[in-house]
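ok, trying the design again with the full structure, not the truncated one.
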């Protein structure tokens, strides 16, 4: 089972209570964080906080559960920051080493124009800047390694906005302070347990759609022991919430203010749906690319049966627009997998590692990785597959594009993305991808090595060749062996020579 969260708006009658309750519990949370950082015993704090702040034990547990999640999240973010910095340093060191070798090969030449720079001068200028950035990254890594990650309640972005008020849309520091305090006190949490009535002791949604919330003892004089609201239904997920309540599952509620409107978020365990797909029906491979998502379906023997593309434009889109576009594509992919009764296969990629090296890969590559929401697509596709009983398989994408280029693009008349998707689908079926005999004849044969070693050698041979040149050379050459001879040239029908490698 997996947890899923649904939301709905709260009636205006509950807004005064939510504001007072969130202010109370947020203040307790910040105080609890300071005491825990000081090393105070949790059991002792639980007794003291109930007496000092006027809350009950269940409300303290909810505050602690929220704080524990934030601390764990901040620790994971800190680890990810360190990992990204180390990756950036490694990539930058490799780039500097590469440019130094290139610098030795560039001849000393005078520029054609007086003010123009020679290639050597341009490269030396780049080499002058990169070590400075390398030093900056190393200093930042040393600083983060020595410091302990700490929480900023309200968010670092809003906190740093006070130092540049005008550029962040604030007229005065008082205006910033009001928004800062409002943002810090904009939510509270009610944790649920499976052994409690309706899945939660301090907040319950009954079968007649009545939401009943336990008021903190310190606020009982103002609101009474309980506050209630009728007609609370979730447009999406009401069936899952009803199922959790009837089957004595935990239901946790979070009350939060968003865009000057209060919402309640219910987190439940969604009932597991048995897989309706099987590999004996084949696999549906999906290749993710900015701008286009290619898919290919093959049967259990690895033969292509269907393929297609989804054009995706995410540049300059809002978060909600991006979610809508990605969600629509995920729904269509799951629908295709349902029609074939097969699993969906996607790449298992570390895009955090890729994004860490964006700066050194050029503007176009950086924009490509930044615009496309890889993690969002992965999460939404996984959720959709679980809901409809479709197995989602992640495979190693090594050489998938190269294999699709060499073996399947010309054979089936596929695009690069659909060819790569076919390779992923076949890999999930454990189909071997041997290099074609003519292509392998020019490579060193070592039978004891894995077949990927041949693809690695072929990748090095084809490095620098454009796809158009590759297919043109295949079409006009009498032997594929000539593809890997950089000095080879073949005659075209018009009698003009054709360079195989650019």
């Amino acid at each position: 089972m997996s947890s899923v969260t649904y939301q709905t708006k709260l009636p205006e009658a509950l807004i005064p209570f939510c504001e007072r309750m969130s202010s109370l519990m947020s203040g307790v949370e910040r105080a609890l964080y300071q005491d825990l950082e000081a090393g105070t015993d949790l059991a002792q704090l639980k007794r003291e906080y109930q007496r000092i702040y006027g809350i009950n034990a269940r409300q303290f547990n909810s505050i602690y559960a929220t704080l524990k999640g934030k601390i764990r999240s901040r620790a994971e973010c800190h680890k990810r920051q360190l990992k990204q910095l180390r990756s950036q340093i490694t990539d930058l060191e490799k780039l500097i080493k590469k440019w130094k070798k290139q610098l030795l090969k560039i001849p000393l030449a005078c520029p054609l124009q007086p003010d123009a720079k020679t290639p050597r001068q341009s490269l030396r200028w780049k080499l002058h800047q990169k070590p400075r950035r390398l030093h900056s990254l190393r200093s930042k890594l040393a600083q983060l390694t020595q410091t302990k990650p700490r929480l900023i309640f309200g968010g670092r972005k809003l906190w740093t906005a006070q130092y540049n008020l005008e550029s962040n849309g604030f007229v005065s520091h008082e205006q910033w302070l009001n928004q800062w305090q409002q943002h810090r006190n904009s939510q509270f949490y009610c944790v649920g347990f499976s052994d409690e009535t309706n899945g939660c002791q301090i907040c319950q949604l009954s079968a007649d759609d009545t939401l009943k919330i336990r008021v903190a003892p310190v606020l009982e004089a103002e609101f009474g022991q309980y506050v209630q609201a009728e007609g609370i239904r979730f447009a999406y997920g009401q069936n899952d919430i009803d199922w959790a309540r009837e089957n004595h599952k935990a239901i946790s509620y979070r009350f939060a203010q968003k865009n000057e409107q209060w919402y309640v978020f219910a987190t439940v365990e969604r009932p597991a749906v048995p897989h309706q797909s099987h590999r004996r029906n084949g696999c549906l491979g999906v290749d993710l690319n900015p701008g286009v998502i290619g898919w290919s379906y093959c049967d259990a023997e690895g033969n292509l049966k269907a393929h297609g593309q989804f054009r995706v434009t995410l540049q300059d889109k809002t978060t909600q627009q991006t979610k809508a576009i990605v969600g629509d594509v995920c729904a269509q992919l799951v629908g295709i997998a349902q029609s074939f009764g097969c699993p969906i296969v996607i790449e298992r990629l570390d895009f955090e590692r890729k994004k860490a090296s964006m700066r050194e890969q050029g503007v176009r590559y950086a924009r490509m990785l930044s615009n496309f929401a890889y993690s969002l697509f992965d999460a939404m596709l996984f959720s959709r597959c679980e809901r409809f009983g479709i197995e989602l398989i992640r495979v190693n994408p090594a050489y998938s594009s190269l294999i699709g280029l060499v073996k399947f693009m010309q054979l089936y008349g596929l695009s690069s993305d659909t060819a790569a998707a076919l390779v992923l689908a076949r890999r999930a079926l454990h189909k071997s991808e041997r290099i074609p005999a003519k292509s392998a004849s020019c490579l060193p044969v070592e039978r004891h090595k894995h077949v990927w070693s041949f693809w690695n050698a072929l990748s090095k041979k084809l490095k620098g060749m454009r796809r158009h040149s590759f297919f043109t050379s295949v079409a006009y050459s009498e032997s594929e062996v000539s593809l890997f001879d950089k000095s080879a040239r073949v005659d075209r029908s018009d009698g003009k020579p054709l360079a195989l490698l650019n």
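Keeping the full-length input from now on. The radius of gyration is 30 Å.
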